[in-house]
Amino acid sequence: MSRKIRVIVVDDSALVRSLLSEIINRQRDMECIGTANDPLVAREMIRELNPDVITLDVEMPRMDGIDFLGRLMRLRPMPVVMISTLTERGAEVTMKALELGAIDFVAKPRVGLASGLNDLAAQIVDKIRVAAVAQVRRAPAREAVPAGGGAAHAPAPASALLGRLSTEKLICIGASTGGTEAIKEVLVQMPADSPAIVITQHMPPGFTTSFAARLNGLCQITVKEAVNGERILPGHAYIAPGGTQFHVARSGANYVAVVDDGPPVNRHKPSVEVLFKSAAAVVGRNAFGIMLTGMGNDGAAAMREMKDAGSYNYVQDEATCIVFGMPREAIAHGAADEVLPLGQIAPALITRLRGATDRLHHRI
């Protein structure tokens, strides 16, 4: 960017405000233009200084970060990076923040705050840079959120009666920034007898459990974190646990989950590249690939390998992406069979699966 990214830091801890300001001001392309110790101070500061990005603590006095974020994204949508704690409640609240429109989050350590935040400096400034160029979504209206906290959705399509196909087909999804809501948009539309779905979303340890539980409460299919060695079953979606690598293998006629402590790939753990490469090798023409919003190129080359092995691939279009990086790279690699708006991906996939089921019945 030709001018510096202007950031406001909102956190009730003076130490965190000082550390984040210092981390931001060390970068040649960004500056901390103000700090606030609570959302009410931040509100006035945002009006006065018009920042490009704000970092926002989850738990603060007078008004918590989630309430403030909800109001902000309804009245003045702007890029927000949440600062979350590595606790079960912190993870649940972070999922809510992403639903409300936060671009991304940083999981701050519970102990050793000064050294821990400095260790996370590269991640923090990377997320601020991504947020500065992301497409911001206005928060849903309050009345659209049903009891239980999930966003309102149209009912999933009637079952495509996919049962005969569902044991051999496998749907593989990769996503990063903006992906938690994009994945939800796809999964809530999948029928209960869907083929198994395997998912890699860039996310640190401690957060994918809440992510899976939240999706499981919204979907007709069962959504869970993947467990090493378990059989991958139709009607289920398996999410790569944060901080691990996840790929699929075969055991006889079955697909099984492999979750291990492999090294980062493309700087990511979990990595979409790892999952998609395994699908190319193990699933071949029975795979469907879906690349959703995210920064960078993780998974693009492996998605092309999937296509070369016979998969059919869907890529989210630029207009509906928070960040178009990973989909753009997948398209550039020639990996896309169809480029679609987010809301059309699941219906297109279901239609294709239904067509394949009909052809199977005709042969029988």
Describe the structure.
- This protein is of the alpha/beta class and 364 residues long.
- Helix content is 38%, strand content 21%.
Please write out the topology:
Layout: E1 5-10, H1 14-25, E2 30-36, H2 39-49, E3 53-57, H3 65-75, E4 80-85, H4 88-100, E5 104-108, H5 113-119, H6 121-133, H7 163-166, E6 170-175, H8 179-187, E7 196-201, H9 208-216, E8 222-225, E9 236-239, E10 245-251, E11 254-260, H10 272-282, E12 287-291, H11 300-308, E13 312-316, H12 325-332, E14 338-340, H13 342-363
Parallel strand pairs: 1-2, 1-3, 3-4, 4-5, 6-7, 6-12, 7-9, 8-9, 12-13, 13-14
Antiparallel strand pairs: 10-11
Largest sheet: 7 strands, parallel
Annotation field: number of helices = 13
Rg for CA atoms: 21 Å
Helix content: 25-40%
What series of H and E elements makes up the topology? EHEHEHEHEHHHEHEHEEEEHEHEHEH
**What would you call the structural class?**
alpha/beta
Indicate the mean pLDDT. Answer: 89
Uncertain parts: 142-160, 360-364
Q: How many angstroms separate the termini?
A: 60 Å
- Approximate strand percentage: 15-25%
Number of separate strands: 14
Shape: elongated
Give the strand order, joined by hyphens, for the main sheet.
Answer: 8-9-7-6-12-13-14
